[in-house]
Design goal:
Elements: H1 3-6, E1 9-13, H2 17-29, E2 34-38, H3 41-53, E3 60-63, H4 72-80, E4 89-94, H5 99-108, E5 112-115, H6 120-139
Parallel strand pairs: 1-2, 1-3, 3-4, 4-5
C-alpha cells in the first residue's frame, strides 16, 4: 500500500472503549498511524469541526450508530449537510443490520457500512474500497456528490 493510503487521518467513534480500542488496533496493524478516537457523537462533531478548522481534516470516520448525547446517524446527517465534509468517508460501524437501517444510512450519505463484530480482514477490505472512493473524490474538482 502506498504512503497516501497509510497516511489517512481516521477517527473511530464508539461509546464502548473495547470497540474503539479494537478498531484502532486493527487499523494500526494495517499500517494506519493517524487514528484518533471519540467517545460519543458530540465529541466526534467537536473533533471533526476542530480538525477542519485547523486545516487537517479527517479522511475517514468510523461511526457507531447508537451512542449517548448525539447518535452516529445524526453525526452523519449533520456532516453530510455541510460541504466541508464532502471529501470525508463515513463508515457506519454498528450492530444495526436490518436492511432498512443500512438503506437509511446509505441514503443519509454513509460511504460504507460494517456490522459488528468486525474483523481486521473486513476493515482492510473496506478501507481499500474507501481509498478508491477518496481517490475519486480528490481527483474530481470541487465535487459536491456523495
Amino acid at each position: 500500500m502506498d504512503y497516501y493510503y497509510q497516511s489517512l487521518k481516521i477517527l473511530v467513534v464508539d461509546d464502548h472503549m473495547m470497540m474503539r480500542t479494537m478498531v484502532k488496533q486493527h487499523l494500526q496493524s494495517l499500517g494506519f498511524n493517524d487514528v484518533e478516537t471519540a467517545n460519543d457523537g458530540q465529541e466526534a462533531l467537536d473533533e471533526l469541526h476542530h480538525a477542519h478548522s485547523i486545516g487537517n481534516p479527517f479522511n475517514v470516520v468510523f461511526l457507531d450508530w447508537h451512542m449517548p448525547n448525539v447518535e452516529g446517524y445524526d453525526v452523519l446527517k449533520a456532516c453530510r449537510s455541510k460541504n466541508e465534509f464532502n471529501h470525508t468517508a463515513f463508515i457506519m460501524l454498528t450492530a444495526e443490520q436490518e436492511e432498512k437501517n443500512v438503506l437509511k444510512a446509505i441514503q443519509a450519505g454513509s460511504t460504507s457500512y460494517l456490522v459488528k463484530p468486525v474483523s481486521k480482514e473486513a476493515i482492510e477490505k473496506n478501507m481499500k474500497k474507501i481509498f478508491e472512493w477518496l481517490k475519486k473524490k480528490t481527483s474530481t474538482p470541487q465535487s459536491n456528490t456523495k
